[in-house]
């Protein structure tokens, strides 16, 4: 899905994010555009729709 694609990198690096360090993950427009750039170019988006 689109959400899986968007958070793919985050899910793989989640173990590196220490809970006690109060680190924040900011997902802004630039991050979304960067992560979904290839997906947006794909003309067959039907496979990402549930």
Can you walk me through this structure?
It is elongated, with a radius of gyration of 13 Å. The longest helix has 13 residues, at 29-41. It has helices spanning 2-13, 29-41. It has 50 residues and is mostly helical.
Question: How are the SSEs placed, and which strands pair?
Answer:
Layout: H1 2-13, H2 29-41
Helix pairs in contact: 1-2
Give a quick summary of the entry:
The protein has 2 helices and no strands.
Average predicted local confidence, pLDDT: 77
Judged by helices, strands and strand pairing, the structural class is mainly alpha
Indicate the proportion of strand residues: under 5%
How many E-type strands?
Answer: 0
Shape: elongated
The profile of the biggest β sheet is: none
The H-and-E topology, N to C, reads as HH
**N- and C-termini, Cα separation:** 7 Å
Global Rg: 13 Å
Low-confidence stretches: none
Query: How many distinct domains?
Result: 1
Helix content: 40-55%
Question: Helix tally?
Answer: 2
């Amino acid at each position: 899905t689109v959400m899986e694609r968007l958070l793919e990198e985050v899910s793989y690096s989640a173990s590196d994010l220490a809970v006690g360090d109060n680190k924040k993950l900011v997902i802004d427009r630039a991050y979304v555009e960067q992560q979904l750039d290839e997906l947006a170019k794909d003309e067959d988006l039907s496979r990402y729709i549930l």
